[in-house]
Fold:
Amino acid sequence: MPNRQETGANRAYVGGGCRAAWYRLVSFVRQCKKIIMKRGKDMARPVNKPELLQAAAEKFGELNSFITSMTERELSTTFDFSGIPSKKERHWSRDKNLRDVLIHLNEWHNLVLNWVAANEKGENKPLLPDPYNWRTYGDMNMEFWEKHQNTTLEEAKKALGESHNKMMALIERFSQEELFSRGVFPWCGDNALGSYFVSNMSSHYEWALKKLKSHRKILR
Structure:
């Protein structure tokens, strides 16, 4: 028969262990909730016209603020993400500097602007020009990169500013329904027109910021 004193001590130990495990679990769940909430806030996509305009303006402003804060060393040092295993997508090795990032954003703005203009005139034009499709658009991006190797940083900044403003003006022309209801424009396929603006503005600016911040982190 077990000693009463020993049994009581074991129970106290087990009870204390359970409480400690419970507190750790509660703390873990709370941390997870914080991470999920933060990610949800960071990754939230606009679902209406005001949010679309606001997100585009805010992210473009954030991008410009970061660019303004870049040091001479950050601007002059060639991007090199080869030492980071998680950064294996083609674009991580494609872009070598800030100019490359900005012209990439600008060229995608132009794709959208030209696509909308052509289809409004009655032309049945896809977003991606021939011979590219969604399996080969990486080659198109490389063509953009090659096209602008003699473009200066100042020219790239100016071009991006102008195309951003054109995109904002184009959004203003469309109604809430035209932007966020599917099936309004046959040339948008199964997507709403607004999704193309989200992908090529606020989301794309966030993509550019991520790359620039990664470059900064490597140098520090």
Remarks:
- The chain has two domains: 1-44, 47-219.
- The mean pLDDT is 89.
